[in-house]
Amino acid sequence: MRIESTRYTECLGSVRINDVQQVLELDSGRAKELPPQENIAVQKIEEDVIKDFEEKMAIVIPTKDEKLKLFEGVVSGVPHECLLIVVSNSQRRRVDRFRMEKDALNQFCHFTRREALIIHQKDPVLARALAEAGYTDILGEDGLIRDGKAEGMLAAILLAMVAKKDFVGFIDADNYFPGAVWEYARCYATGFCMAKSAYSMVRVLWRYKPKISAGMFFKRWGRVSEITNRCMNSLISSKTGFETEIIKTGNAGEHAMSLRLAEILTYASGYAVEPQELISIFEGFGGVLPMANPTAAKHGVEIFQTETRNPHLHEERGGRHLLVEMLLPGLGSIYHSPLCEKETKQLIINELLQQNAIQPDEEPPKPRLITPLRAINLKKFTAVMTEHMNSYSALEEEE
Ligand code: GDD
Ligand code: MG
User: Fold this and answer.
1) Would you say 146 and 53 are in contact if contact means Cβ atoms under 8 Å apart?
2) Could you give the angle at the alpha carbon of 278 between the alpha carbons of 272 and 284, nearest 5°?
């Protein structure tokens, strides 16, 4: 794969935020000695190197009642070397959609001879393992894991730790293009390959997000992303004193992290999770508040933003979902951060009023924060989970 080198980096304390890097060539051919000047503006990442990183990476697919055909397509796009982890919150009653996902995955793994784990978010063993390991932040009143994409992601990160992976990447299950899925995973691998720090994150920026309205229109920015990015950038500017547009992936659902970074971040419930990850990084390592982790602060936290070639086409859930479930909580995570000063708060209020998402005297809701995963007793969690691992593995026959 050929990708632009990191040309511009903005620093905030020990956080390095790299500007967007475009993918130039999805397949850059065989490994060859390159003339030295060729690696200046453009990086060629060899296939073998990409595979090495894919091998150390789990790809998590969070899913909730998605069309089975889409789910199957997404699964088929994940590179073979990655460990697939499906965490599903699909219904089990009237129609057992989880069963259907499991069957589809089993069949896929059987014929492709690959590894995958599939688990239901409401799995009682998973909940018990969390409780026994002292990590109850994502458990609800019924003792099971709460609903929500973030809650599913966290359970999957823990499974990636049990599987001893080094990286974890997320890809939504409602994506129409398996080719895009394949590209996301390669971009994650490429980002980790370029990273100098063990605490790194790769966030995907879609080149286009097509909309269907009297023909196809290749839209570049979604409304929610545009607003979230603007507010996030305003917060950074207030700390550096220089106006910036560096953040272009504030809401990126498609993103990946090294597990060393993933275990020290504070998360937020539901769809506030992606903006909150950035906020946690800025709070913990931005140099304004006390450093959250001395080793990570020393190594620095690195953020990559990669622009993919494939357009992004996923299921559309309509305006209200975008406003209430995504924009509002996302901006809430910026607004309620101790880093957020008056001007950014005002900007957030103005944006939300303009979108009719709040009333004149209202504030965005406080995010529900989730303690870093490091608080868990991983040994205990692993002990409970390994005992039942066979029933989550797609290649194993069921007892
Ligand atoms: N396990 C699990 N549990 N998965 C869930 C849950 C849940 O409670 N709720 C939703 N999902 C799955 C969906 O099935 C889908 O695969 C993925 O999580 C994203 O959910 P969507 O409901 O499709 O979100 P979206 O398309 O509006 O927003 C996506 O893109 C945004 C912008 O990049 C999400 O990835 C957002 O998190 C992201 O900010
Ligand atoms: Mg979606």
Assistant:
1) no
2) 120
CA distance 334 to 272: 10
Protein residue with least CA distance to atom 38, ligand 1? 253
Tens-place pLDDT, residues 110-143: 999 998 999 999 999 999 999 999 999 999 999 9
Q: How far apart are CA 143 and CA 342, in angstroms?
A: 39
pLDDT of residue 37: 72
What atom of ligand 1 comes closest to residue 156's alpha carbon? 1
Asked if 101 and 88 touch (Cβ cutoff 8 Å), the reply is yes
Low-confidence ranges of the chain (pLDDT < 70): 211-221, 318-319, 396-399
Residue 229 near ligand 1, beta carbon < 6 Å: no
Tokens of 137: 């932040």
What 8-state DSSP symbol labels residue 327? I
Q: Would the CB of 306 count as within 6 Å of ligand 1? A: no
pTM of this structure: 0.96
CA dist 35 → 2, 26, 38, 49 (Å): 15, 20, 6, 19
CB contact set of 378 (below 8 Å; sequence gap of 6+): 133, 158, 161, 162
- 3-class secondary-structure state, position 204: strand
- pLDDT computed for residue 191 by the predictor: 98
Asked if residues 203 and 189 have their Cβ atoms less than 8 Å apart, the reply is: no
CA atoms within 13 A on the CB side of 138: 34
66 lines ligand 1 (CB under 6 A): yes
**DSSP code, position 175:** B
Q: What pLDDT, on a 0 to 100 scale, did the predictor assign at position 197?
A: 98
Extended strands (E) in the chain: 2-4, 9-12, 15-25, 42-44, 57-63, 83-88, 116-120, 167-170, 199-205, 209-212, 216-219, 255-258, 267-268, 301-307, 369-370
User: Taking Cα atoms as reference points, which of 161, 197, 202, 201 lies closest to residue 295?
Assistant: 197
Q: How far apart are CA 138 and CA 124, in angstroms?
A: 13
pLDDT of residue 50: 98
Residue 327 near ligand 1, beta carbon < 6 Å: no
What's the CATH fold of domain 2-398? Spore Coat Polysaccharide Biosynthesis Protein SpsA; Chain A (3.90.550)
Helix (H, G, I), strand (E, B) or coil at 304: strand
Contact between residue 70 and residue 175 where contact means Cβ atoms under 8 Å apart:
yes
